[in-house]
Amino acid sequence: MKSDRMLVLLALFGLARCAWPQLPSSTPADSPAVSDVRGTQKSDAQQAPDAFALGSIHGVVTNQDGAVYESVKIALTQSGSIGHNARTVTSDSNGRFNFTNVAPGPFELSISSSGFATQTISGVLHPGESYEAKPLVLPVSAATSEVHVTASTEQIAQEQVIEEEKQRVLGVIPNFYVTYAPNAAPLNSRQKFTLAWKSSIDPITVLASAFFAGVEQANNTFSGYGQGAQGYAKRFGANYADTFSGNMIGGAILPSLLKQDPRYFYKGTGTIRSRVLYAIATTVVCKGDNGRWQPNYSGIIGGLAAGGISNLYYPASNRDGATLTFENALTGIGGGMVQNLLQEFVIRKLTPKVPKYSPSNP
Questions:
Q1: Which range of residues forms the domain containing residue 220?
Q2: Rounded mean pLDDT, 211-221
Q3: 3-class SS shares of the chain: helix, strand, coil, % to 5
Q4: Which of 53, 133, 160, 320 could join 128 in a cystine, given CB atoms 3.0 to 4.6 angstroms apart?
Q5: Residue 121 phi, psi dihedral angles, 5° rounding
Q6: What is the pTM of this model?
Q7: Residues 117, 204 share a domain
Q8: How many helices, marked H, and strands, marked E, lie in the chain?
Q9: How far apart are CA 362 and CA 264, in angstroms?
Q10: Is-contact 217 232, C-beta < 8 A?
Q11: Residues 168, 287: one domain?
Q12: Among 16-25, 105-114, 353-362, where is mean pLDDT lowest?
């Protein structure tokens, strides 16, 4: 029995020895598969780049013809989690530029130089990359300049006179001796004479003299002139002579000598009372060429002078020496008051071509 048992044990022992080599080893060093896996993992770790490895950005600046530019300013701008970073370099004699130790991520290059338009390009720098930018073409900037032109006082006045010569009541009756510019430039002597001359020879002025001559003819005013064509011609000549002498003496000669402005300066603002008083006052006061208000010697003396001259051609029976002269002067002042009131409240509304001036910019 013992021998049978021994045989059985020996048989079992033999079977166990036969099966032993087929079992997997538990020692990692004896396993070639595990050794291969370890070797592969180590190689991948060595080849993977560092996510924060610094790189560089470089390139060249040229013009549209390919010529390189030296001393051009190139600005590198980066925005990331660590904030906003900006650096600047200039191109060398070969037109090249180089940024080193640049953090990976989005970037922007700005190229600028005097006389050229600023150019901006953007890109993304990968970890450890040496980024070669395409040739940066610097376009020529369009020439721009700002010129401040200041006209002389004479030029400004001339432009205003041209506008005044377009002013006609109802588009017909000349209204040259009023300015709507709040700060109108003073007229020089030439401009004063030109304005007086154009006002005197205007066809409407001539027709007005003819009209009043006809009224006087019908009423037999200044009977010493008589009737008929000869009487009408004398009345027409006297009327036109009054207008011409008044314009030239009171609107050109005396204003040039006394440096006064013969025009009416439209007020247009304030209460009705203040505007009425202003219109009446400006019959006997005027603005000097220095911009200050002063007695209107030109208008008053001009009226007296025109009245005195009229004694030379009015009929002897209607001449009354100084009386007629002062009557004509006072009549002129009264008519001037009425005219100024009409200028302030009525005539502007009836004048189609009125220059538009702002209070601050005449």
A1: 153-350
A2: 94
A3: 50, 20, 35
A4: 53
A5: -130, 160
A6: 0.57
A7: no
A8: 11, 14
A9: 16
A10: yes
A11: yes
A12: 16-25
Question: In Å, how far from its chain's centre is CA 360?
Answer: 15
Name residues whose C-beta falls within 8 Å of residue 80's C-beta, 6 or more positions apart in sequence. 103, 105, 106
**Distance of alpha carbon 85 from alpha carbon 321, whole angstroms:** 97
- pLDDT score of 279 more than 80: yes
- In a shared domain, residues 326 and 177: yes
The residue count of the chain comes to: 362
Q: Evaluate whether residue 67 is within a structural domain.
A: yes
| Segment 27-66, tens digit of pLDDT | 444 444 433 434 444 444 445 456 678 889 989 988 777 7
**% of the chain at pLDDT higher than 90:** 42
Both 72 and 185 in one domain: the answer is no
| Nearest one of 327, 243, 254 to 294, comparing CA atoms | 254
Instruction: State yes or no: pLDDT of 208 exceeds 50.
Output: yes
Q: Tell me the C-alpha to C-alpha distance, in Å, between residue 95 and each of 59, 62, 72, 75, 138.
A: 8, 7, 8, 15, 11
Convert 323-358 into a string of H (helix), E (strand) and C (coil): HHHHHHHHHHHHHHHHHHHHHHHHHHHHCCCCCCCE
pLDDT at 31: 41
Residues 191 and 264 in one domain: yes
The answer on 339 and 215 residing in a single domain is yes
Task: Return the SS3 of 179.
Answer: strand
